[in-house]
Amino acid sequence: MTSPGAVIECQGLTKRYGERLAVDDLTLGVPEGAICGLLGPNGAGKTTAIRMLLGLARPTAGVGRLFGVAPGDAGFADVMRGVGAMVESPALYLNTGARANLAIRAVALGMSPRDPELDEILRFVGLADRSRGRVRRFSLGMRQRLGLALALLGQPRLVILDEPTNGLDPAGIVEIRTLIGTLPERGTTVLVSSHLLAEIQLMCDRVTIIDDGRLVADGPLDDVLSRATRRGWEIRTPAGGAHAAADGLKAAGLRAVVASPTSVTIADAAGVSGRTIVQALATVDVEIEELRHEAPNLEQAFLALTQEPPA
Predict the structure, then answer these.
(1) Which of 9-18, 172-181, 193-202, 299-308 has the least mean pLDDT?
(2) Is residue 311's pLDDT more than 50?
(3) What's the CA angle centered on 53, arms 162 and 190, to 5 degrees?
(4) 8-227 and 230-295 share one fold
(5) Distance from the Cα of residue 160 to its chain's centroid
(6) pLDDT at 50 over 80
């Protein structure tokens, strides 16, 4: 069920293209102030779902709402004035400059094309020194930055970004991630679709994972990680010490498995501290050469949730 105060909500949202079911009975909610990552394999239905939320595609069944209003409802146009979006490749005027693109968008929003916010946003996305040059000559990464600037114009309450770091170099990716992370402080909720799982884990506090058009996980990032991956420890010992170490750990009530003559692992070790392990091994006089905590990560969770188990 979606929460009553959700900024984004989908209830049974479905889209069929002929025989292909692109989005299948999708129900979810994104609360105000969240940075939510929308994840899924290629062809999972992420962009289709975003297009339906924005009124760019008509659902076959179900409904998607922004701030409680669905495309086609009275007031949806007013809602969209508070929504910034960059879906797939940003639509840009190639024969003008970056600032001129922002000025055109500003007029559509009822702002003055001379509003100081335009220059502030260009600085924000790192295009202040390229504001006049023709967009036609921009690199892919620069066009992505301009698309992001257009989405942020007018201080929107909601920003929806589809692959915002596409074409950026590593430094640019870090800059955009940092920028997106500041948006809730400005009163903006964010939905960001990306295939860069490590970046999503660093950027987002919530994740929604869909596969083959269907929802497979939705909620706070830590909850999804804890449900989909195992948190454990790896203990390395001198040669021949692994079996003694495993015995000592089992005696302490820990689920230890000998992985090699020099290593022991503890899976599903939520709540198990390094101090507990050290104390258990001290009782059997086993030396520890390395103690490594294996924290869950989004890549492991994503693969666990979206890959079919082997037959």
Answers:
(1) 299-308
(2) no
(3) 50
(4) no
(5) 11
(6) yes
pLDDT of residue 52: 96
- What pLDDT, in 10s, does the model give residues 9-25? 999 999 999 999 999 99
- Domain coordinates of the chain in residue numbers? 8-227, 230-295
User: Is a pLDDT exceeding 80 seen at residue 310?
Assistant: no
CATH number for the domain running over 230-295: 3.30.70.100
Fold of 8-227: Rossmann fold (3.40.50)
